[in-house]
Design brief:
The chain is α/β, with parallel strands linked by helices. It contains 17 helices and 21 strands.
Length: 483
């Protein structure tokens, strides 16, 4: 792409030999781990030292070479220059020269289902959590559910140590207004017909254990406002994939988060009718100039209101003539019938005359840069669909963010700390500092010099336990889109 690098205004001071001492552990109970979970572990010592690493701490500042991280139990005990950090007696010491370390990724649009090109949504109760964890995604928000009780069951199984996977924050089933969008039926969405139904829906899912609500496409302003009001009363938050409501309208209603970036903002389409999805709105985004004052107004209002945004560039890329080939690891994870469907879809996108889709994709990148430069909180998630696989698509998000112009350290912040901030978990995770949970990704190579090295994950620490990515991914060969 035609871009340099920008971003990276957050700086974390160098931390040297700061010892944690008093916060109660809230991570995985090692004694409760099942035999299957134990079989995926590469490092299980209670005290571990990661030595000589290139550290991207998640705060957005420059990477620091020659660093050592000491893990005790579930948490980070100390961080600092190798040779200056005291290594506890008996610690398992890993010399990781030539490796980058970043915080565990926090996926903000990470369903537990895979949306195939057929189209069909397949729950990934088995393959999803293993792929996410193996790729370095240690925390996810489901951001829409087609099988909410399966999601809740999986969350519990991971927390009890019965199955491997990231920590999971549950989003209730999609909520939408009645209308022509076929996904209302195909994805099991709940259609809001009146205020009482909206409030009943929110209260029910709050009681069932959902932390977030996700509104979808053809939601009306009235229904969205009611959902937001009731969710906030219940201590929940609301995000949305919009088209019938513009970003500024949703911001005025008090929404917490907006999905897919500019891709889902219809407010620049002059033919749009209130509370209706226009068939022209994405074309209007492609024709939009980023110097249009309306763009600055949208960003200004979102930032002033504290509305966060989720980037899903890896899946957006799949819907353009730029759609990449399936990689060898994609082909291994997908069953043959899904591969065939994905190949056919790629052929269609590459041969259809849609040059404006490239302009649209470029505008998505520029909008996200402008949003962050204005002070907006941008996180990321894969939205697993169309060949953007769990975990692998999250890694591709990092690569595209750098291609868009973000400094690698700023992209790491988007992939980790910002997600933790949006979820309200930033006191516990998202940056590599003493006292926080030991969620760390060990990557062979230098993701600053070669962003694609992020695919070379060698160990994933979650709650201080080091998982073997090869074992996790080997377990799901041919399973994505099946189980």
């Amino acid at each position: 792409m035609r871009r340099g690098t920008r971003g990276g205004t957050w700086i974390l001071g160098v931390v040297t030999i700061l010892l944690w001492g008093g916060k109660p552990a809230a991570g995985q109970d090692r004694d409760a781990l099942s035999e299957e979970v134990r079989s995926y572990l590469a490092v299980s010592s209670s005290v571990v030292a990661l030595e000589n690493v290139l550290l991207f701490d998640g705060a957005g500042g420059p990477a620091r070479s020659g660093q050592t991280i000491v893990i005790r139990g579930t948490r980070i005990e100390s961080v600092g220059a190798t040779g200056e950090v005291e290594i506890p007696t008996g610690a398992e010491r890993l010399d990781l020269a030539g490796h980058s370390v970043m915080p565990g990724m926090v996926g903000l649009h990470n369903h537990m289902f895979y949306y195939q090109s057929t189209p069909r949504a397949s729950q990934m109760q088995y393959s999803g959590p293993r792929l996410y964890l193996g790729a370095g995604v240690t925390t996810v928000r489901t951001t829409g559910s087609v099988a909410p009780y399966q999601d809740l069951s999986l969350k519990g199984a991971v927390e009890r140590g019965e199955t491997p996977g990231p920590r999971i924050l549950i989003t209730a089933p999609y909520v939408i207004s009645p209308g022509p969008d076929e996904r209302l039926r195909d994805l099991g969405m709940y259609a809001i017909r009146d205020e009482a139904a909206a409030r009943r829906y929110v209260r029910y899912w709050a009681a069932e254990g959902a932390e977030w609500i996700k509104a979808y496409t053809q939601i009306t302003r009235e229904a969205l406002g009611t959902i937001i009001d009731e969710a906030h009363r219940q201590g929940m938050k609301v995000t949305a994939h919009l088209c019938s409501v513009g970003f500024r309208e949703a911001t005025a209603l008090g929404i917490d988060n907006l999905e897919h970036g500019l891709w889902a903002n219809s407010e620049y389409d002059t033919t749009r009718e209130p509370d209706r999805c226009s068939p022209n709105y994405q074309r209007s985004i492609a024709e939009l100039g980023m110097d249009d004052p309306r763009v600055a107004e949208t960003i200004s209002e979102m930032v002033a209101a504290g509305v966060a945004m989720t980037s899903t560039l890896a899946v957006a890329e799949q819907a353009t003539p730029l759609v990449p080939d399936l990689t060898e690891r994609d082909l291994e994870a997908l069953p043959d019938h899904v591969v065939e469907a994905e190949m056919e879809r790629r052929s269609i996108f590459r041969t259809t005359e849609m040059p404006w889709m490239i302009d649209l994709f470029e505008n998505l990148l520029d909008f996200e840069l402008a949003f962050v430069e204005a002070g907006g909180v941008l996180a990321a998630g894969v939205d697993p669909a169309w060949g953007a696989l769990p975990g692998y698509g999250d890694q591709r998000n990092f690569e595209i963010l750098v291609e868009a112009g973000f400094e690698p350290a700023a992209a790491v912040r988007i992939m980790s700390a910002n997600g933790a901030i949006i979820l309200g978990l930033d006191d516990e995770l998202g940056t590599v500092v003493p006292g926080k949970l030991a969620d760390l990704v060990v990557i062979e190579g230098d993701i600053e010099l070669r962003p694609s090295d992020i695919r070379n994950v060698r160990i994933v620490f979650k709650d201080g336990l080091g998982y073997d990515p090869e074992k996790l991914t080997a377990a799901v060969v041919g399973q994505v889109g099946v189980r």
